[in-house]
Write a structure and sequence with these properties.
D-Maltodextrin-Binding Protein, domain 2; two-stranded antiparallel sheet
Length: 301
């Protein structure tokens, strides 16, 4: 058994296809098949069910976590050795909530790429749960997730930055709710038509849930869809400010004040795995860039 066999096994399991794995690894399909046959000979059984669709056997499912652990440890050891030799890893892998990927990460990453064009950068935008899995699987080194992390996985994470972000109610300037910039809660429920409910935290905020129930006309959609709807005059919704900052600054959307409604915030954090190797110089630079941008946006003290 060798590392190439484990890499190929992991890639096929992720891709669900021998041919796609071969393409991603830059190999011919016979070479990929040969590696898997050698791995199966070492394990004493098949790791994949062949057919129109590729799936893991019970043996393959049982072995996969250990194979990935070996690859992750080998990668971390190689990276640690490279840092000792050069002081830089040359690669940064970041995950981010979609609501922060543009307004916060975008400007920070732009400055970072201009300053370090030789560093390989990967940014993945996803929801909280998927980002946690990417982080624990070692697919990303850093992730911007909602905070605190309620899962047991939170004990395996170390926050590097904790952000405190306002959540604001917005609508199109010509929408009925925009005619009064400071509505009563009953007026909002009556005139929003509909009140869009967005999942910008792990669970809906209780105040937003209460208003949605009061409205009786709620529509639950992703933030990208909600931004499109309100930009075209359909409904009103509570958005994290960073996500719709450009639309507010251009006047495409307006913020609506609601009397008696406490200010709402969404906390998030830039985290890394607790047992991961120390950050590379390049990754630490990106963290500082995100911190600088967060301060500019008023998300940090």
């Amino acid at each position: 058994m060798d590392v190439d066999q484990l890499i190929t096994f992991d890639r096929i399991a992720r891709e669900g296809s021998f041919s796609r794995a071969a393409l991603g690894l830059g190999l011919g399909q016979p070479a990929v098949s040969s590696r898997i046959q050698a791995l199966e000979a070492s394990l004493g059984g098949a790791v994949f069910r062949r057919g129109r669709r590729i799936s893991l056997t019970a043996l393959g499912e049982g072995f996969l976590p250990y194979a990935r652990r070996v690859l992750r440890m080998l990668e971390e050891g190689t990276e640690a050795a490279e840092r000792l030799r050069t002081g830089s890893r040359g690669r940064v892998r970041l995950g981010s909530l979609g609501s922060l990927a543009g307004g916060l990460v975008g400007p920070a990453l732009a400055r970072f790429v201009r300053a370090r064009p030789e560093v390989e950068c990967t940014l993945r935008s996803a929801d909280h749960e998927f980002l946690i899995q990417l982080l624990l699987d070692g697919i990303v080194d850093l992730a911007l997730v909602t905070w605190p992390c309620a899962e047991a996985a939170g004990a395996q994470l170390v926050p590097l930055l904790v952000l405190h972000e306002p959540v604001v109610l917005v609508a199109h300037p010509k929408h009925d709710v925009a005619k009064s910039r400071r509505l009563s809660q009953e007026g909002l429920a009556r005139r929003a038509r509909p009140l869009l409910r967005l999942r910008w935290w792990q669970n809906h905020h209780p105040e937003v849930t209460r208003l949605a129930q009061l409205s009786g006309t709620t529509v639950e959609v992703p933030m990208e869809t909600a931004r499109h709807l309100v930009s075209h005059g359909v409904g009103a919704g509570f958005f994290t400010r960073t996500y719709i900052a450009d639309e507010l600054s251009r006047g495409d959307l307006v913020e609506i004040r609601v009397r008696g409604l406490p200010r709402i915030f969404r906390d998030s954090a830039l985290v890394k795995r607790a047992r991961a190797v120390p950050l590379s110089i390049a990754a630490a630079d990106l963290v500082r860039g995100i911190e600088t941008e967060a301060k500019r946006l008023g998300l940090l003290p």
